[in-house]
Amino acid sequence: ELDLNREFNKKKPAEEIRLLKKDLQKYKKFDIAIELHEDNPKDLPVSQKNEKSPKGFYMYENCKNKNKRIGKEIIKVLENKKIPICKKKKIYDDINSNGVISYPEGRKNKVYKKKQNFDDFITSKYCDHVFTFETSTRWNMNKRTKIHLDAIKTSIKFKKKTIKAAIKLKRKL
């Protein structure tokens, strides 16, 4: 089975990735990129088969500039909506801080250290702020969809606030 998320830095990626890269070249920059993932315990890499998959929502925030990070605020909003958040200290060897795995410093998973996934690719060329939202396949599809939509709306709301604040600051300077 082919994992398209692991194809981005390969010399000969899958056709879908080649087409996506071609389309992305038409654009110069994005304010944010959002990936919607599902954490399926059956799909774990062999190196992680013994680890129990998380039962709550969690997210990766790939943003080198720590002052621009908004993951903790997103989690707070989701918690207020009674969405279960994964609080495990480590998720697949990555460091989890109450539902947020911050990249690059939280990256400890050997699979992601290869930097062949979408968030590494897009942050290297098109976007400096990427979110990957993870829901559990233990939940029904309606619940997973609702949680992903809540996370998307919340991240866009917070990102708009940070962009507006940056514009105001620029004007003052």
Query: Largest sheet at a glance?
Result: 4 strands, mixed
Fraction of residues in helix: 25-40%
The number of helices is: 5
- Count the beta strands: 6
Strand residues, percent: 15-25%
Unreliable stretches covering 5 or more consecutive residues: none
Instruction: List SSEs in N-to-C order.
Output: HEEHEEEHHEH
Strand order of the largest sheet: 1-6-2-5
Write down the overall geometry. globular
Radius of gyration from the alpha-carbon trace, in angstroms: 17 Å
Structural class, from secondary structure content? Answer: alpha/beta
Please, what is the average pLDDT?
Answer: 86
Distance between the termini: 53 Å
Describe the structure concisely for a colleague.
This protein has 173 residues and is of the alpha/beta class.
Could you give the topology of this structure?
Elements: H1 15-24, E1 33-39, E2 58-62, H2 71-80, E3 90-91, E4 94-95, E5 100-103, H3 110-113, H4 118-125, E6 130-136, H5 141-172
Helix pairs in contact: 2-5
Structure, described:
This protein is of the alpha/beta class and 173 residues long. Helix content is 37%, strand content 16%. The protein has five helices and six strands. It has helices spanning 15-24, 71-80, 110-113, 118-125, 141-172, and strands spanning 33-39, 58-62, 90-91, 94-95, 100-103, 130-136. A four-stranded mixed beta sheet has the order 1-6-2-5, sandwiched between helices. The protein has a two-stranded antiparallel ribbon with strand order 3-4. Helix 2 packs across helix 5 (141-172).
